[in-house]
Amino acid sequence: MEGQERDPKLKFKSLKEKCSPPSMKAIKNMGFKYMTEIQSAVLPRALDGDDIVATAKTGSGKTLAFLIPVVETVVKSEPNESTGTLCIIISPTRELAIQTYTVLQDIISFHGCITSSLVIGGENKKKQSMELSKGVHIVVATPGRLFDHMRTKEFDYRNVNCLVLDEADKIFQYGFEEDLKQIVNRLPKNRQTMLFSATLSERTEALIKSAMKDDFREINTSEDNIKATVDGLKQGYMVCETEYRMWWLHKMLKKTQNQKVMVFFSSCKSVVFHYEFFTRHCNASVLCIHGKMSQIDRSATMRNFYNAEKIALFCTDLAARGLDIPAVDWIVQFDPPSDTNEYIHRVGRTARGLGTVGNAVLLLRSEENGFIDHLKEAKIYLDKYESWDKYHNLQPKLEAAMQDPELRKMAEEAFEGYIRALEVRKLKHIFNVISMDMNKVAKSFGLEKAPEVDIHTGFSKKHRPRKRIAAILAAKTEDSNKRIKS
Ligand code: ADP
Ligand code: MG
Q1: 83 lies in some domain
Q2: What is the pLDDT of residues 12-51, one digit of tens each?
Q3: Per-residue pLDDT at 478
Q4: Distance from the CA of 60 to the center of ligand 1, in angstroms?
Q5: Range of the domain at 132
Q6: Could you tell me if residue 306 is inside a domain?
Q7: Residue among 28, 60, 70, 219 whose CB has most ligand 1 atoms within 8 A, to mutate
Q8: pTM given for the model
Q9: Is residue 1 part of a domain?
Q10: Mapping DSSP to helix (H, G, I), strand (E, B) and coil, where does residue 475 land?
Q11: What are the Cα distances from residue 248, in Å, to 175, 216, 320, 387, 392?
Q12: What is the Å distance from ligand 2's center to 254 Cα?
């Protein structure tokens, strides 16, 4: 085993032989003396040029574990004017790319002549193209925009010798998969590749490994741990009847009004509706972020949230990955996560770094109780928090809000967004759209009765009636299997 190299008390100084003085100075300047466990396991290997697949819990310091080797790659390459780009770091979201780029600026601050560029969607392509044409050494990018540039003459990536995929399982997920394959295929084969994440999923693992050399190193510092989340995290769940979900959220926001809170929703539309309702009708101090906002608004919101001491951020899973936001007190999962991995990433936005604490609560409808067992199978253990017996009656406020046609439309769209997010879930026996009482769901968005929404079960329209019955039967079978097991 690699016991010695995993000593969490190893100093950055021990990398002196492998790491240039300006980098060492930058690390010291950032205030870091000792490496975290994943850093001391990864850095010596990565600095030797090995391919690496690294998994370590959220907030364990993975960013430096790849940024230091990236910078040292540039130092070793001794680039000249015609070298072009040498290293590419890919992130699944623009916000994470911005954050990584910011940390990178700290590390190259004493290097003088190392250049870098941020290449993300939603920002000026021409400006990015100009920067790339100058041959910046390090590019931090989101996959779609990077691939756009790879199809232009301006971007010279023939000498790229280091590729990093941060939150690798997310990048390889549906949507980015094709871009990623094309990107990886176009890059020089004799490069170093490093993959980082807190979670790897089976479905993406094969794909991920196809990007690596055969003799890659697998480093996993969360492997022998008895739980999948960090020690400083206090996590529990609460059960609430469908129609009172907004009442619950209202109370949660009141209880945490002097704290910094992230509230996760399953769709953009739901974020929008709840944001508008709680700011306009409840005077709540809330920010919101989702993928349908302009990049300018997204960046401004994130900046505000980073700097705030007490505020709630309503968000989609856009904000679930990688973000290192100071002092988040509560993670509220108002809508359940799509799977156990997404649960881990959402709660990973709090209790980050060494010796920190944070709170998380997952809201479930009573029909969704089975999710707790599912989480247990993934070594995620939640306490049951007692339900509150008193709620503020939100009904008058909701009725008033529904008089406004604009807000009413938002509620209807949010309702649909909520249903659509449930339809695509794998755990049909827990999140069962077909058996749901749609009127109660409607009420949970302030609506009197359910708007017309065509329920999909993941099949083409032509076959829907038959497939729908099949889906009902499948849900029943899973149910009875469960009963047989227990
Ligand atoms: P991860 O990517 O594993 O989720 P990050 O790289 O975002 O984690 O780091 C989490 C936090 O820990 C950041 O605020 C970072 O500045 C801090 N950190 C990183 N390395 C160290 C270290 N060696 N000592 C103390 N804090 C560190
Ligand atoms: Mg990270």
Answers
A1: yes
A2: 999 999 999 999 999 999 999 999 999 999 999 999 999 9
A3: 53
A4: 5
A5: 12-220
A6: yes
A7: 60
A8: 0.89
A9: no
A10: helix
A11: 34, 48, 22, 9, 9
A12: 31
